[in-house]
């Protein structure tokens, strides 16, 4: 292939690469956001707050209580403004009202006044609603054709002119064929021509790639428009925007923070145990084999009473003991026969012998008979295993025919209505100032406890505290781990909040969400202390008057 073919092939390759880059760059152009935020108005009064949004000729009004964020239903809202006749909005759902008027869809800023009457009280709220005009549609420009781009042809013409100039400037002069100068200048002229060709190709390639590279850079670097609309979202400063429809869906509620003196608490780890006076065990008194009782073998969960038979135990005996027992039984049986024969002879001659001899023989015979009964085969005897206390069987380690050893635990009986909780406290803490205690299970249920006392000795450098469960709680099981909140008699100043108001931030630190505007929430880091199992005491990080989210805080915390 000659030099011209190589140049044309390289040129076509550059053109194809340039078009591919241009296509890739245009494919990354972000599409404009389809949704735009609706015009809205916010107004906060002394007791009520309003959020109004416009959509066409419909004005949607959300009426809530300022302190609790609870929707206010059954209210009367009259809307008026400068050049706008007064009109009453109709309620479409609890706390949501709508007004249908033509002026709502006309562009411009509208100063509105809301006269609200709710629960026999009236309030006057106002604000400015900015109705945007019809927005121009964002139509992406069609990419200019490569061959119709003026810049391409301009750069190409400049490159061609430079190449033409170099070709004429360094063209070889016609010299004699045998000239030594011609022989010397040929390599230099050839190198210059190659350099000129490279310059022309490079210039033409730059002309091809420069516009598309710029376009690719511009499209790739252009920021994508931020998502907008009425969806909940986290703002750049970390706050969260939650529109009123989403607040109604999440049932967001707030309370006004107010500092007060409260009884502080301490949270301990606890374990549910059985009441020692209402629990019992049934152990095997000797080696033997389990047999069925009259009503069968008792099972786990069965309710029993004290003295009720749970199972039967047939004692077992080793072979060597059984042989010795048989030998002793045979010896006793022989002595019995001798005593019976002697007693018969004495009775026949009772008139010539002393009565004392006959009585002694009779006593000896009776003793041998008792001994024979004691040596009867043990397989014929069964020991009845009975319940020591009233309650439910929690453990039953028996089966018919099972061979057990002495001191094996066969049954455990507990009373599920009489339970204790053992909490582990730090050594050296005073326990005489316990004002109350509560246990919290895995499902968050609050269980009242009665303080009984503490162990006199430490257990692994900890102090066991004993509490009695007050009332009946079907969800408690022996061995369940619970949280124990012990309240002391000392008072601490802070803000009392429900436990659901405290959430974990991104760094794992406790925080609360504060409502700073009708649709805006701000996170605040706090330090808390246990209180009573259902509430916590915020000792720092929260100011009086802040509207703290008490319901829906966990859902707001997950908005990204």
Can you tell me about this structure?
A hairpin with a 3-residue loop joins strand 1 and strand 2. The protein has 560 residues and is of the alpha+beta class. Helix content is 27%, strand content 36%. The strands form six sheets. An eight-stranded antiparallel beta sheet has the order 1-2-3-6-5-4-7-8, with no helix packed on it. Strands 12-21-24-23-22-25 form a six-stranded antiparallel β-barrel. The protein has a five-stranded antiparallel beta sheet with strand order 9-10-28-27-26.
The CA-CA distance between the termini, in Å, is 62 Å
Classify the beta-strand content into a percent band.
Answer: 35-45%
Give the tally of β-strands. Answer: 31
Number of helices: 7
The major beta sheet can be summarized as: 8 strands, antiparallel
Radius of gyration: 49 Å
Shape: elongated
Helix content: 25-40%
The averaged pLDDT comes out at 78
Q: Give, in spatial order, the strands making up the sheet with the most strands.
A: 1-2-3-6-5-4-7-8
Based on secondary structure, the structural category is: alpha+beta
- List the uncertain runs: 4-35, 135-144, 175-184, 210-228
Keyphrases for this structure?
8-stranded antiparallel β-sheet; 6-stranded antiparallel barrel; 7 helices; 27% helix
Q: What layout of secondary structure does this protein have?
A:
Blueprint: H1 3-27, E1 40-44, E2 48-55, E3 58-65, E4 76-81, E5 84-93, E6 96-100, E7 108-118, E8 121-131, H2 150-169, H3 180-221, E9 233-234, E10 240-241, H4 244-250, E11 253-256, E12 259-274, E13 280-283, E14 288-291, E15 303-304, E16 309-315, H5 319-348, H6 355-374, E17 383-386, E18 391-396, E19 403-404, E20 409-414, E21 419-426, E22 434-440, E23 446-454, E24 462-469, E25 481-498, E26 503-504, E27 510-517, E28 520-525, E29 527-530, E30 535-540, E31 547-551, H7 553-557
Antiparallel strand pairs: 1-2, 2-3, 3-6, 4-5, 4-7, 5-6, 7-8, 9-10, 10-28, 11-31, 12-21, 12-25, 13-20, 14-16, 14-19, 15-18, 16-17, 18-20, 21-24, 22-23, 22-25, 23-24, 25-30, 26-27, 27-28, 29-30
């Amino acid at each position: 292939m000659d030099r011209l073919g190589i140049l044309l092939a390289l040129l076509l390759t550059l053109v194809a690469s340039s078009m591919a880059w241009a296509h890739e760059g245009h494919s990354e152009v972000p599409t404009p956001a389809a949704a735009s935020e609706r015009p809205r108005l916010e107004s906060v009064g002394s007791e009520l707050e309003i959020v109004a949004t416009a959509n066409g000729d419909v004005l949607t009004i959300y009426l809530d209580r300022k302190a609790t964020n609870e929707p206010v239903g059954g209210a009367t809202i009259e809307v008026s403004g400068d050049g706008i006749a007064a009109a009453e909005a109709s309620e479409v759902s609890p706390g949501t009202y709508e007004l249908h008027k033509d002026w709502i869809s006309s562009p411009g800023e509208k100063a509105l006044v809301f006269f609200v009457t709710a629960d026999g009280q009236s309030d006057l709220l106002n604000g400015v609603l900015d109705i945007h005009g019809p927005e121009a549609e964002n139509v992406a420009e069609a990419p200019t054709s490569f061959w119709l781009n003026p810049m391409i042809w301009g750069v190409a013409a400049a490159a061609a002119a430079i190449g033409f100039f170099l070709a004429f400037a360094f063209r070889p002069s016609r010299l004699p064929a045998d000239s030594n100068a011609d022989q010397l200048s040929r390599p230099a002229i050839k190198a210059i021509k190659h350099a000129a060709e490279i310059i022309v190709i490079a210039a033409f390639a730059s002309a091809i790639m420069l516009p598309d590279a710029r376009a690719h850079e511009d499209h790739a670097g252009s920021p994508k428009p931020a998502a907008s609309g009425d969806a909940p979202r986290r703002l750049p400063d970390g706050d969260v925007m939650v529109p009123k429809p989403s607040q109604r869906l999440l049932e967001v509620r707030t309370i006004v923070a107010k500092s007060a003196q409260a009884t502080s608490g301490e949270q301990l780890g606890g374990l549910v145990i059985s009441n020692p006076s209402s629990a019992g065990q049934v152990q095997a008194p000797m080696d033997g084999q389990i047999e069925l009782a009259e009503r069968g073998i008792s099972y786990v969960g069965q309710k029993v009473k004290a003295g009720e038979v749970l199972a039967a135990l047939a004692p077992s005996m080793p072979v060597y003991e059984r042989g010795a027992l048989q030998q002793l039984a045979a010896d006793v049986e022989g002595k019995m026969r001798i005593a019976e024969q002697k007693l018969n002879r004495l009775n026949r001659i009772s008139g010539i012998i002393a009565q004392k001899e006959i009585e002694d023989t009779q006593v000896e015979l009776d003793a041998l008979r008792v001994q024979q009964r004691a040596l009867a085969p043990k397989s014929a005897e069964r020991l009845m295993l009975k319940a020591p206390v009233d309650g439910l069987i929690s453990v039953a380690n028996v089966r018919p025919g099972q061979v057990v050893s002495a001191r094996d635990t066969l049954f455990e009986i507990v009373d599920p209505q009489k339970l204790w909780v053992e909490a582990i406290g730090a050594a050296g803490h005073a326990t005489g100032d316990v004002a109350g205690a509560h246990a919290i299970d895995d499902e968050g249920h609050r269980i009242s406890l009665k303080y009984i006392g503490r162990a006199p000795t430490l257990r692994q450098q900890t102090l066991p505290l004993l509490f009695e469960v007050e009332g009946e709680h079907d969800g408690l099981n022996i061995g369940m781990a619970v949280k124990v909140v012990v309240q002391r008699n000392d008072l601490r100043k802070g803000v009392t909040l429900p436990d659901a108001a405290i959430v974990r931030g991104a760094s794992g630190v406790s925080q609360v969400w504060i409502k700073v505007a009708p649709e805006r929430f701000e996170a605040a880091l706090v330090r808390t202390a246990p209180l009573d199992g259902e509430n916590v005491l915020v000792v720092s990080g929260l100011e009086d008057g802040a509207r703290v989210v008490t319901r829906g805080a966990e859902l707001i915390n997950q908005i990204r």
